[in-house]
Amino acid sequence: MIFEGGGFEQLTEENIYKKINEYDIFSYYIPDFEAINKKFTSPFRSDSIPSCSIQDWKGTMYLKDFGTGETFTAINFVKTKFNANYYETLNIISNDFNLGLHSKTIDTSSMGYVGIPNQIRKEIPRESIIRIKRRKWNSDIDKKYWGEQGFNTDVLSHFHIVPLSHVFIGDNCIKIKPNCPSYAYVIDTGIYKILSPFSEEYKWITNCKAEHIQGWNQLPETGDLLVITSSLKDAIKLYQYGYNAIAPASENTIISIDQMSELKERFKRIVIYFDNDLPGIEAAQLYESLFEVDYVHNPIGDPKDITEYYVKWGDNPTKQLLEKLL
After folding, report:
1. pTM for the complete prediction?
2. Are 172 and 91 in a shared domain?
């Protein structure tokens, strides 16, 4: 059955996504949604602790409810929210966003919404092309920023962290200012996380996806212990103390079943070591339940991760803490 838009465009999911994107839809129907991977309370049930987030998996955004294990694409979310069938759902979205894709066959109201006739579309690039131009490790800022955390250029180079003079995002070129440096975490060929630690506009730019695991390429073939931690910095800090470690894109990014299966074959024991705040502990508990692995965290009240712990307490206390935890 074909649903036509008044002699113009057909009412189809494809045509909807020519005008708006998944980010627009989730933002419109979930007022608590503020940013990718940032948790909010469930729109469908009583939820005293935020347990849902919008995530991006291989270019498709979806809502993940960690309380129930359910996932919803943008279309399925609206379908469930309004208890509508598929084509009613498309109509609701078309009406609410004033897209003009009106079906001759189905007549639905906007369910109380008034539309966004002048909405500015937020572009979420599906395949962001990032290129970089490197510079030498030569600034006092480099030495101060990384040195305070106990990292030297040898260990940074081992994990493919490099300082930058320019970043190219698509056709746009960003020239890095000497007093506001940027660094690239080279995760894989053409895959980067760009860190600008002193920028007021943005701290991170990345084209990483969930399947890109930081530190994976530096792992040995086999080992007794593997630590999955919060960030590449923490993985490097653990490496400095003799531990094999990797980090997903974020604590809310779940390593795939295939990747975890491979890691369990290569390492005798796997431990999750996330931040000691509530989101970190909840994420670690989710890993524990999904993959039957142990988890640890810094003592409550201490710095949240091992790098910050090192900065506050120094070398020997950090070594003693890791021996106690791992």
Report:
1. 0.63
2. no
